[in-house]
Hints:
Blueprint: E1 2-12, H1 13-22, H2 25-32, H3 35-43, H4 49-70, E2 81-84, E3 95-98, E4 109-117, E5 120-129
Antiparallel strand pairs: 1-5, 2-3, 4-5
Amino acid sequence: MGILGIGVDIVHVPRVLRLLERRTPAKLAHRILSEKELSVWNGLPSEDQARRTRYLAVRWGVKEAAYKAVYPAAHPTWKDFTFHSLSGDGSRKPFLECHLKERESLSWKFHTSVSHDGDYVFATVLVEAP
């Protein structure tokens, strides 16, 4: 396999918080989260604003990085990707699920790395293609 693309993104978490304050949190979540992600987000305690904001910021960064990695071979939307975090027991690495309609995307392999510290989330996505 060869490298189709590499994408990176950095998200300033207070920016996401400001977006949540301007819109209703549910409206922003519905805009950028896949159905699976939205189900998890809805299960997060509504009073834990920091956790909910970080959840959205991580997915925002990963999806922006993924878009940069696959463009111009594909033109994904926010909901074309689902990010799965590190498993609770540490047995599974984070990964990105792709729901693109382009037939060739079925053979693409996504590698994802996310780091968050304080006010920043940094995401990297590398995509391999045959």
